[in-house]
Specification:
Layout lengths: L1 H21 L1 H14 L4 H18 L2 H17 L3 H12 L9 H14 L3 H13 L5 H17 L3 H9 L9 H18 L6 H13 L3 H14 L5 H18 L2 H14 L5 H114 L5 H19 L11 H10 L7 E5 L11 H22 L3 E9 L2 E8 L12 H12 L3 E5 L6 E8 L1
Parallel strand pairs: 1-2
Antiparallel strand pairs: 2-3, 3-5, 4-5
Length: 546
Amino acid sequence: MIRYLLFILLLFIACEQKTAIHNAPEADKLYDEGAQLLLKDNIEAYRKFQKALNYYYKTRDSSNISKSLICQAIAQKYTGDIFGAETTLVDALNFMKEGDESLYSAYNTLGDIKYAQKEYASAEEWYNKGLSEKNTSQKDKFDMLNNKGASEYRQKKYSSALKTLQNIDLSQVKDINLKNRIKENIVYTQWLQNQTSSFQSKFEELLNLKLKNNDYWGANSSYSHLAEINQENNPAISLYYAQKMLEVAKKLKSPDDRLEAIEKISLVDNPINSRKNFKQYKNLSDSIQNYKNDNRNRFAYIKYDSEKKEIDNQRLKADNSQKQINILLLIIALILAIIIIGWYRKRQIQLKQEKELEVKNTQLKMSKKVHDVVANGIYQVMTKIENQSDFDKDEALDELEFVYEKSRDISYEKEDTSDTLDFDIKVSTLISSFKSDEVHTFLAGNSKNIWDGVSSSAKDELFQVIRELLVNMKKHSQASRVAFKFERKDNVIHIQYTDDGVGIQGDISYNNGLSNTVSRIEKIHGKITFDTQTEKGLKVYISFPA
């Protein structure tokens, strides 16, 4: 029954887990759709990743959770929500462990965010962390090294930047656009280190390579640099390149590049146009900020709406689960009732068996008492009559009446409280009662103080053991000499029994009387050893704590 109950519980849990596993393909599909939309429609891409996250959170899929969050951060970064992107990435890091394959991407994106925030030292640290992580893409590594070099020259660490950039093996860079960007960063860093006009031709050469390769984003970077290096000495040339940058920025629909181009134009344009340029710059700047604010709010709404729907969905599932739990509880209650009824019946049978066993144990106990007290007691009286010629009738009757009283105590299960003799006298009397013309008994060490502190129950058990040894000797051993030696050492009483009879033939376990002696001594936490290896007779060693 219990196994059946466990089966139902496991089935219920398995159904819940199966639902979560069933949702995994849907989550992966949403993730792939988001990845395809990334950098094309970042708002919709963010929404897809958020839906995928709802599934991944349920299955505690930390790897896919971190990947989705990184992609969301990239979408936020490219739509101007820099601070939101940083928060999302920190959340992603909480789901990653050391050596996670997504750490490289997370650190690189954090470096880009810090670069956009103009925190160049922090950007360099994140790039260094990213470069220390394992990454199979050589292109990604070259790209991060290029970004690291840029963060270094922004800090005016020109030598360090050049070392970083020039250590890139350009022969291994397969992406032409990336190779041109690295070359331009090297030239730009060299110009920052030594601002001369000799770099003009190098920038123009790189510009032509980019235009030839239709790399207009890269071309705008060259226009920016050419406008910058001519700003002081050749303002007309600087204005030309700044205007070219603005023209391309409009085609690329890049408001940030447009804003930078207008700023560069304002620095070298005719002062007559300063008001127009300022107004244009201010309007575009406000527009960009509003765009970023709108996107930040949209991202926040997508997250809030998704989480609200998930909470409502979980509440509905909880209601359904509660109904299922109620049904399950009814089934469990029914099964438990069946189990309890079965247990009750089994317990009744067990109690009946225990009662029968108790009766058997009581019968065995009574049988043992009858053997020790009545049989051995009568045999002791018979031995006295046999061995002592002057044993009178009245004394024999008294002895028998004592045995009779003992037998009545057994039938009423009364404890023996009538014995008032000192134990050393009882032992001496018992041993001497087996003395005859054929059997000589010897006793040593049975002083009164040897029995100090020994409990009455231990004394009673020991008395029966001594009597059993004497009865066994009288019946079977044909001994002529019997000796008892008593000794007390360190609160342990040692008793040695010796006779010169025929010894014990066969196994002690077949001798009911002697086997009883073993159980009695064990009852008082003692030890008894029968030495049957002697050439003649029997030796028994007994010890027990006082």
